[in-house]
UniProtKB/TrEMBL annotation:
Domain of life the protein comes from: Bacteria
Taxonomic path: Bacteria, Bacillati, Actinomycetota, Actinomycetes, Catenulisporales
Protein name: Uncharacterized protein
Amino acid sequence: MSIEVQLGISFRVDGPESAEELAQSAGKVMEALLALEECNSELSDAGVAMDADQMIVEVELKASGASEPESIERALAAVRTAIHAAGHGTPDWQTSSRYATPDISVEGATGTFRRLQFTASVE
């Protein structure tokens, strides 16, 4: 049996200084999420939106697994991986998950994604 979870996370993004730079960052995260979907059948329906005035990026993703916690962990790991692939850091990220990836070095990051809000709903 597979449990599907719809994950939504809002991030305050530090680093990009203009709406155009934030849009580029959000686009890179979306591209990375789509690439992850292509190679992982447990991930689907990725979406990224932004509010340039507030420097906020919202990410949505569906993930499935054997349990609700496993599905949430898988989705969180995919989102963090996409942020890293886009060249950003996630220094405040909890890393207790078995799917967790280490944060990229602060020196190599072009910005920082800090979580503001997290929602998960079981489909």
